[in-house]
Design goal:
409 residues
């Protein structure tokens, strides 16, 4: 079971740490009990090689640094998850109209943090974008056709993996759909495209893993873009952005496609030549924030971790010690039945907490994730970093809607 971390830490020495390890071995007790016996916690542990590096650069920008006055541009999101994209667009001044999310736990996170948002999902709505008719009927009560706003959405990757094993039959009149009619694993990209085509929003954003660009030789994405261009959209070339190039202390590549029917071509935010190390947001103390529980490791795991140098991998546990001076490796979401496999803290030989992963993802500390720790990791790891989303939102407002990026007073 996870446990709350102590805020007050005593200074650990290598000699004392080894004594604690020996005590656990001799008494045949758990490391957590040996630490408690000596008056320490997991957060007091140190690597064999500690504090040889430290981040001495500036702190990265937070979501607040991208806050803009309301621009009146309405926003509808699909496959919302825990709301990473939505937070960025909200900060950039957009008016949040609706969010569709089929996972009830993710909906609870959204409703807890943003009770004023209209969240369509369990238990009151399916929130399932594959049920196009239901989504259309719901939205028609809220927004008009020829919607003068933005649709954003990142269709989950799993249907694409299934789809990649069900090759197109180009002999069919509607070849994109051949092999994608499975009632559970339909192709969510084209369901999303269908909703875009129905409401004809002024602008849309598609977000996904870079692999979507090459799936089936690029035919799926090309077909989706072709359909949207036939609707009159100017669609920019699909672009892979690395979050580390946009002030996020994490290497994380995502694919984005932006389309506009405003008469103006959409643009992307300009990358920065400054990278922020993981140590810029990861300290030894997490303060009083929520979601700070960490894994209770076995002694054998901690002993292996202690021997790792910066950036090295524990091959048995398949976890990496982060280097405080370079961006973190990608925060991992995990699968349906398990949470993400978090990385190791740069200076504490343990895996990261959900809050520490959320900081690498640029979520504010007051944004709370609900559910089990495993499911919290899933939510954080699946999200688009809000700081990156805010920069995309500002670029869209400026290029598509010709709104000056006026900062909040």
């Amino acid at each position: 079971m996870p446990r709350k971390m102590s805020v007050n830490h005593k200074t650990m020495t290598h000699d004392v740490q080894q004594e604690i390890f020996r005590f656990a071995e001799n008494k045949k007790i758990q490391l957590k009990d040996s630490l408690k016996h000596y008056g320490y916690t997991f957060d007091d542990l140190i690597y064999d090689e500690s504090h040889k590096k430290q981040w001495d650069g500036s702190k990265p920008k937070t979501l607040e640094d991208y806050e803009a006055r309301s621009n009146g541009i309405p926003l509808v999101s699909f496959f919302t998850g825990c709301g990473g994209i939505d937070l960025g667009f909200e900060t950039a001044g957009y008016k949040h109209i609706a969010a569709f999310e089929f996972n009830e736990l993710f909906c609870k996170t959204l409703r807890k943090n943003r009770p004023d948002w209209k969240v369509f999902g369990p238990p009151t709505h399916s929130g399932d974008v594959s049920n196009v008719n239901e989504v259309v009927k719901t939205l028609e009560k809220i927004i008009p056709i020829d919607f003068e706003g933005v649709f954003v959405g990142g269709p989950p990757c799993q249907p694409f993996s299934i789809a990649s094993n069900q090759r197109f039959s180009k002999a069919g009149d509607n070849f994109k759909r051949v092999g994608f009619e499975h009632e559970t694993n339909g192709n969510l990209l084209f369901d999303y495209v269908s909703i875009i085509k129905h409401f004809n929003p002024l602008c849309f954003l598609i977000e996904n893993v870079p692999g979507l660009r090459d799936l089936d030789g690029g035919e799926q994405l090309s077909e989706a873009i072709r359909e949207l261009k036939e609707m009159g959209y100017v669609v920019g070339e699909p672009k892979v952005l690395n979050a580390a190039d946009y002030g996020v202390p994490q290497f994380r590549e995502r694919l984005f496609v932006i389309g506009s029917r405003s008469g103006y071509s959409p643009t992307y935010p300009e990358p920065s030549n400054i990278h922020y190390g993981a140590g810029s947001v990861l300290g030894r103390c997490q303060g009083n924030a929520k979601n700070t529980e960490t894994r209770v490791h076995k002694l054998s795991s901690i002993q292996r971790y202690c021997k790792l140098g910066y950036g090295q991998r524990d091959q048995l546990g398949r976890v990496d010690r982060l280097d405080p001076c370079i961006p973190s490796k990608t925060v991992i979401a995990g699968g349906t039945n398990g949470g993400g496999r978090s990385h190791l803290h740069p200076e504490i030989p343990r895996t990261l907490s959900v809050r520490e992963c959320a900081r690498l993802q640029t979520f504010p500390d007051d944004y709370v994730f609900v559910g089990s720790t495993a499911r919290q990791f899933t939510q954080v790891g699946n999200a688009v970093p809000p700081v990156l989303a805010a920069q995309l939102a500002l670029a869209i407002a400026s290029s598509v809607f010709r709104v000056k990026n006026v900062r909040a007073a």
